[in-house]
Structures are given as structure tokens and as C-alpha cells.
Amino acid sequence: MVGWKNMSMTEMSAGLLEGCSMERARKTGKYLELQIKRVLRFFPTVLLITLLMGVAVTLVGGQILAEKLSGEKQKKLAIGVVGDTSDSYLGIGIYALKQLDSSRFAMELLEMDEAQAKRQLLAGELNAYLVVPDGFVDSVVSGENKSIACYTGTGQAGLGVMAVREFAQVVSELVVKSQNGIYGMQSIGREYGREEDVYWDATNELNLRYIDFVLSRTDIYELETLGLSKGLSMQGYYVCGFVVLLLLIWGVNGCPLFVRRDMSMANLLAADGLGPLVQVLCEYAAYLLMMAASLLCVAALLGGVSEFLELSIPEWKEINFSVIFSFAVKLLPVTAMLTAMALLGHELVTDCVSGVLLQFFVAIVFGYLSGCLYPSSFFPQAVQRIGAILPSGVAVEYGARCMKEASVWGALLPTLIYLLLFLAGTWLLRRRKLQK
Predict the structure, then answer these.
(1) What is the DSSP letter of 229?
(2) CA distances from 327 to 59, 245, 331, 400 (A)
């Protein structure tokens, strides 16, 4: 009692506050330890489910990717040719395009009547069709240059249509320029009094040079593929998309652990000094540990069998354990954000069935809009903008930058903002439930 009497009020208050802070820290640590133990106890089951989901998505994704790569290699532009091609020069030209020109590997010319061409164009069997007017070759010889009409579907806006239009423009340019060159040479010959058989021989020589130029035009340019979307190859893009989709679906794993049927335990913890913020942060830390461990375990498994996988990703010089595992480590900020989003979803529902349905719905809708299932560059601009600002879109962008080994700072900021917003939303929901 003498010791207490000799202490000032300030010292007594400081001592009490320090004691309360230490007691609260001890309880917080105990609750965090309890949540981690819960996670570890269920982790073998969770990991098994995670691996099954990972194998399923990998198999489906691998099949889709193989089909798309095979389709890209085999697909040609189908172009219908309408008109009288019995003219010897026109017939020879079409034959050369079909049999000799390098365009035969990317383009297929199909002769047909206009009714059939319209029908196949509407059915999507043709990318376009060309209508060659009667007397086309004679008009070119005489300098009149009748136009070849090019028809495409009104709703088509793909790369095939763009290539057809570009092809028609190039053909027109080549015809006009070569024609001007030949007529100009003949005019110079007449002006200088050259004999007719001399400049006709020169005309034939110049025509042959033009033909040789057209047939060997692939030697005058270099083709560089910038990527399917976000500057990635098809393989790299789908790897990023499928990883983000897996992380979204893995939110289902937390339903048995973090969906609360009643709030009695949370109320008891709050009465003991552990408020909603402490509860949410401790549960989030344990949940993030489970999600990160699941991701790294799957990466380690894939890295271990990477030697047996017949997969080539242009962004990676080689595929081995180190490359796959380091990519998974780089994705931990994205994992943290999507874990916080999943925890918010668990807080919104009161039973496990609703939680599973909600997580699957969010995974499919967000994954589709953000391009995890199909490249976002093929969507309308409005859908692309919506998908890009969704958490899943931010995650795909972050993964793409990691895949390209580019700077991630532009994608890290929105990732952290979403992370804080999800935790704040979970805290507000928990506080509201505790106040009821």
C-alpha cells in the first residue's frame, strides 16, 4: 500500500494502460495462433481439393490452348471469287495465287456464283468475297481499271476482315503502279524513236520483274507478333488467366472455416476486448497463409513435373522448377488481394452453401469479364474497360507484368487499394453484426 501511495496518478494511469496493452496483445496473439491452428488442421483437406481444382483447370486449359494453337496454325482466310474467270490472264493469275504465291498458306480462294457467296458469307463460312466485273483484264490493259468489289459481313470486325481489306488495297496499288511504270516506259521508248519490238521486249521483261517482285514479296519485310493481349503470347496470356481463375475459385476452400452461422463466439471475443478489427485481421492472416501455401504447393508440384510437360511459353526461355516457383512467389500480392475479396464474400453470407455458390459465381463472372476464360481484346471496348478495373482484371494485369518481367508498380497500387477496401468492408460488416 505504501508503494501505491507514493505513485502519482500519471504513473498509475501509464502502468494500467501498459498492462492493458500487453494483455490485449497477448489475447490477439492467442487468437491468431488459434486461427492458424484451425487452418493447419484443415489444410490437408484443403490442399487436396486445391490440387484437384488445379488439375481440372490445368487439363481443361491445356486442351483449350492446344486447340487454339492448332486452329491458329491451320486456319486460312476463306475468300470467294465471283465473276467470269475464263479469261486466260485472269485464270492464270488466280492459279498463281492458289499454287505459287506465298499467300496460299494464309488464304484460300474459292470460285463460286454470287448467290452462293452471299449465303456462305452470312453463314460465316467466308471472310469476304470479291466480285470481278466482266472485261476486267481488258480494262486494265486499256487503262480504265474497272473496280473489283469486296464484300464483308456488316458485323465482322476481326483480323481476317482487316487482312482481306488490306489485301484488296495492296492488289489495287500494285496494279496501278505497275501499269504506270509500263506505260511510262513505252512512252519514253516512243519519244526516243525506239523500234516497237524493242520496247515490247522491254515491256515483257518489266512485267516479269513485277511478277517476281509480287511472288517474292515476303523477303522485303519481317513479321513480328506483338502478342495475343497485354503484349503476351497466347500461351503466356492463358497461363496468367488460368492462375487468376484458380485463385478466384479457391475462395471456396475458406467457406467451412470462415463462414459464420452465428455470432456468439465473435460477441464473446468482443466482450473480452478483441474487437471486430482484430478479429478480421487475425482471420485474414490465417486465411492468407492457407491461400499462399496452396499456391506455392501447386507451383512446386508443377515445377517438379515440368520436365515431362510438353509446353512452350515464349515469355520463358525454359520451363523448370525455379521459373514456375518464382512466378508463384511474384503473385503473392495478387493472392493477398483475392484472399481479402474471398473473406469479404464469406462475411456476406451465413451458411456454407450460399458461400460456395457466391464464390463460384464471382469467379466465373469476374473471370469471364476480365479475360481469364477468353482474351479481353476480343470484347467490345465497354466490356474491356469494365473488366480492366475489376479486381480480377487488376490481377491479370499484374500477372502479365510478372510474366514479361516488366515493372509491376503500375498494377501494384490498385492491388493494394483493393486489398484495403476489401478488409475495410469486412470490418464494417463484422462491426455491424456485433452491434445487433
Answers:
(1) B
(2) 20, 16, 7, 11
Cα–Cα distance for residue pair 432/276, rounded to 1 Å: 9
Pairing between β-strand 149-151 and β-strand 128-131 as defined by DSSP bridges: antiparallel
Domain boundaries of the chain, sorted by first residue: 31-71+229-435, 76-220
Tell me which residue of 369, 66, 52, 381 sits closest to 241, measured CA to CA: 369
Please give the grid coordinates belonging to residue 123: 453463314
Could you give the CA distance from residue 249 to residue 253 in angstroms, rounded to a whole number?
Answer: 8
434: Cβ contacts below 8 Å, ≥ 6 apart: 263, 266, 267, 270, 275, 276
pLDDT band at 16 (very low <50, low <70, confident <90, very high): very low
- Residue pLDDT, tens place only, 316-360: 888 888 999 999 999 999 999 999 999 999 999 989 999 999 999
**359, HSE (Cβ side, Cα atoms, 13 Å):** 31
Number of helices (H), then strands (E), belonging to the chain: the values are: 17, 4
The architecture (CATH level 2) of 76-220 comes to 3-Layer(aba) Sandwich (3.40)
The DSSP 8-state label assigned to residue 83 in this structure reads S
Which of left, alpha, beta for 143 (phi over 0: left; psi -120 to 50: alpha)? Answer: left
Dist. CA 102–CA 217, nearest whole Å: 9
Q: What is the separation of C-alpha 421 from the centre of its chain, rounded to a whole number of angstroms?
A: 25
